[in-house]
Amino acid sequence: MLKKIPAVIFFMATAMGPNISSALSLEDSILYVLETNPEIKAAESNKQAIEFELEQARNFYSPKFELEAWAGTSENRGNASPDLGAASGSVEGYELTARVSQMLFDGYRTRSEIERQAYRIDAAAYRVLERSEVLSLEAVRLYSDVLRTRSLLSLAQRNYTYHKDVYARLKTGYDRGVIGIGDLQQGEERVYLAEDIILEFELNAEDAETLFLETVGVEPKSLQTLPSVSRAVPSSLDLALGRTRTDNPTIKFMQSDVGSAEALSRRANSNRYPSFHLEAEGRTGEDVGGFLGDREDFRVGLVLRYEFQGTRKRAVRQEQARRVNESKSHLLSRTRRVESEVRQSWSTLRSAKRRLSTIQGQARLSRQLREAYENEFVVGNRSLLDVLNTQGALFQAEANLINARSLTTYAEYRLLASVGILLPTLGIKAPEDAKPYAGEKVGAPGLSEASSEQQFDAKTFRQWRQSVEK
Fold it and tell me: Where does the record place the region Disordered (predicted)?
């Protein structure tokens, strides 16, 4: 019995999960998101469903077996047979038919379909990775926001304590007749203002914690400082864009979508060719077709099928060729959008760093100014209200500094997510379904030149359009 107690304790601790009062790291928060977020689960289910579509496509290479059974009434009205005698009326009978068909050649239709499904699997995997990167960044934002609002609340509480202390000193001076009622009332008004700021910041902190719980799925208890990712940030915009073109899951998703469209076009081209099947069929029955007697026959042979229906086949091929061009245009558009987001993230980070440096200088001077005013107050050169004014300026500067530090840190994470390397930078393994493999496994051909990884500027776009129009 005693040996079972540790296991029970472990189970209870595991079941309590988020309620355990232990430190919640950023990595833990992201792992909670990756494991439980419904958007990621939906993307994973989509990828798994397409894997079964690939399995269906592969089975077109397998022999097809059919078994058909018939029982009922038949009647012959004048036809003769050398082996069977025609019944004078309707007869009751049955027939069993078995067929087996093996596809020998279908113009590479099946092969193209397998390649298409493989590209769709890889695209779905990149979609899982994309969702993981986006939601991980959202977890970072909420984690940072909780830390920021809590820091602001702590600052507001210190500000309130400071004003209460100054008000107490003003009250003492008023009781001694040193200062007037106006100064005392102004000091009291500052206390009320500081208290109101606390209430406002408490509400902001509660809102941030609620959003964190909604997205991450656990309460933000005992959060740690965000780990620095400054060393992982690309040193230049060109390097960031270069990593984006090779690593961004959104671009890779669109490239796989182009591969799927090209495979579909190849499948459409298969209608140029006839299909060849090796087929065998056997039938056995009794009193079938209005004839009395047993019936047994068997045949095996090569079957050629080719369909003619005006210009429909050609129209199908032309349609899919245009679909490929459409898919490539979507790739170009999405690539531009992703690169624009990287540029915006880069600009935001640069601006945040410059502003942080300015605010740090302002906060440093505000602290020095308040200290100087306090020293001057001691010798009678400043009033307590002068000190309160400098405290208000210092409080605003320190609040701005907290916000600026939080924004700068988040901007670094946002840039990494825009590039598509947030999870690898943090050393967090993406979900298993985020790994592309199918295209390489089935030996699917590479994408056309217009779909390769490159920088899509205006010159490249003109060249691409010219290649499409040829």
Answer: 437-470
